[in-house]
């Protein structure tokens, strides 16, 4: 019986260790148009367009995050991914959606984009916003008052401490509408009261309907909209690519639109690109495509708009060696001086076959004159990006909270490994002690039996 017990304990240790190894080696499947947002040290990813278990393609309901308190290399499989899908999967399959964060309520909001019922692949039309409680890891439908805007895709949002600013985008059959409609309206979601606000913007001119741009909110409350496509009316007539020498901005404090003419080395047109904001006012623009149908890469792959220069809004196109394949519809997040680029669609005319990817790439932006692609993320040497939380859109999140030594906690992977090691060690010691005690008892019993046997023999001989 004791040996059966020992076998069970050892088998349990083996199974638990195998489970830890499976968690440790989790790698997300390739996807693009994924939503991402940084909350404390966790870089969350939601949904995206990728392959289903039956090899068909569609919007995914997966939820996972990258632990930015752990150092890693992009050259091997030690990227600290944590999969939450089995316990906190999205209620619907989502892609081309956007995400925002309310730190006061510990909530992440997923809104707009495609929302597909995973069981019947039908558009979900009754819910525009889902909320995710980061503490209990549960989803719920957000009940929001006011007049909700029509569902749309290919838009981006910006966020300050109180409001989510949602501009532009387009709707069509993919979003559940019969006809294609291009938008140039500004919708504001008050995250404190969870209500949609009516906006009456002003300005000498108002921007035309547009989609597939980036949205970057500066420290002064100005939102900068870069790239994308535009149409002459809501019906999508005369669609053209937005030139990068003219940029629309929106003053969130005055509800005022302004068209700014930029200077410097003007980069080429693009859609599906990303943009992150550095602490000194630089907007780093990466990737994208210059042609929707051909999936040809935007040129150059890297461009920088300096909003704090004299005069302001000067473009430059720095060179960065060892650049990865140019991506479109990827995720980009700035942590310290490291831009984390993940997933996306590999464009044509690269050394890598086009299509979805699950790769992670790192760009060091610390040196203005020398942008460098690196392969190691060192969490211990990162400098705080900001002393207060700041937000941006889902595909171009701007990082937030200073990473201080006191904020660091043991990651789930390390905790599981330590738990498995300690548990199995204690179990092994207990087994050894029990085995020694039983062996001593058995030897004592055996010696006693032998002595009794000798005594019996002596009596019979007499």
UniProtKB/TrEMBL annotation:
Origin superkingdom: Eukaryota
Record-annotated Attractin/MKLN-like beta-propeller domain positions: 109-369
Pfam families: Beta-prop_ATRN-LZTR1
Residues that span the membrane, as ranges: 414-439
Record's keyword annotation contains Magnesium: no
The keyword Repeat appears for this protein: yes
Gene3D superfamilies reported for this sequence: Kelch-type beta propeller
SUPFAM superfamilies per record: Kelch motif (SSF117281)
Official protein name in the record: Attractin/MKLN-like beta-propeller domain-containing protein
Species: Gigaspora rosea
């Amino acid at each position: 019986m004791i040996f059966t017990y020992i076998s069970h304990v050892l088998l349990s240790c083996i199974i638990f260790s195998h489970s830890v190894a499976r968690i440790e080696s989790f790698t997300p499947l390739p996807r693009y148009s994924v939503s991402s947002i940084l909350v404390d040290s966790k870089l969350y990813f939601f949904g995206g367009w990728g392959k289903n278990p039956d090899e068909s393609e569609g919007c995914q309901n997966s939820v996972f995050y990258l632990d930015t308190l752990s150092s890693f290399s992009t050259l091997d499989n030690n990227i600290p991914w944590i999969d939450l899908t089995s316990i906190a999967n999205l209620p619907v399959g989502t892609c081309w959606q956007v995400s925002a964060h309310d730190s006061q309520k510990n909530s992440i909001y997923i809104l707009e984009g495609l929302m597909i019922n995973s069981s019947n692949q039908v558009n979900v039309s009754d819910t525009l916003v889902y909320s995710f409680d980061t503490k209990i890891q549960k989803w719920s439908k957000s009940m929001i008052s006011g007049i909700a805007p029509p569902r749309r895709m290919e838009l981006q949002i910006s966020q300050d401490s109180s409001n989510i600013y949602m501009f532009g985008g387009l709707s069509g059959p993919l979003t559940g509408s019969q006809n294609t409609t291009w938008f140039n309206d500004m919708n504001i979601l008050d995250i404190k009261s969870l209500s949609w606000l009516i906006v009456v913007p002003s300005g000498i001119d108002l921007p035309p309907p547009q989609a597939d741009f980036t949205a970057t909110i500066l420290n002064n409350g100005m939102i900068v909209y870069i790239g994308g496509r535009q149409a002459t009316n809501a019906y999508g007539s005369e669609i053209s690519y937005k030139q990068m020498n003219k940029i629309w901005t929106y003053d969130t404090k005055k509800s005022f639109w302004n068209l700014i003419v930029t200077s410097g080395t003007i980069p080429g047109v693009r859609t599906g690109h990303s943009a992150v904001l550095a602490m000194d006012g630089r907007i780093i623009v990466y990737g994208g495509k210059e042609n929707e149908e051909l999936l040809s890469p935007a040129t150059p792959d890297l461009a920088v708009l300096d909003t704090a220069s004299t005069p302001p809004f000067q473009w430059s196109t720095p060179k960065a060696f060892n650049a990865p394949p140019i991506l479109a519809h990827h995720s980009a997040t700035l942590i310290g001086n490291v831009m984390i680029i993940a997933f996306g669609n590999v464009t044509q005319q690269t050394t890598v076959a086009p299509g979805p990817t699950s790769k992670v790439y790192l760009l060091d932006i610390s040196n203005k004159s020398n942008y460098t692609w690196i392969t190691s993320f060192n969490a211990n040497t990162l400098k705080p990006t900001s002393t207060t939380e700041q937000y941006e859109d889902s595909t171009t999140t701007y990082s937030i909270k200073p990473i201080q030594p006191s904020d660091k906690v043991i990651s789930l992977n390390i905790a599981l490994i330590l738990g498995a090691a300690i548990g199995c060690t204690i179990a092994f010691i207990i087994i050894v002690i029990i085995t020694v005690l039983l062996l001593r008892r058995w030897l004592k019993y055996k010696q006693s039996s032998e002595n009794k046997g000798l005594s019996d023999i002596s009596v019979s001989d007499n």
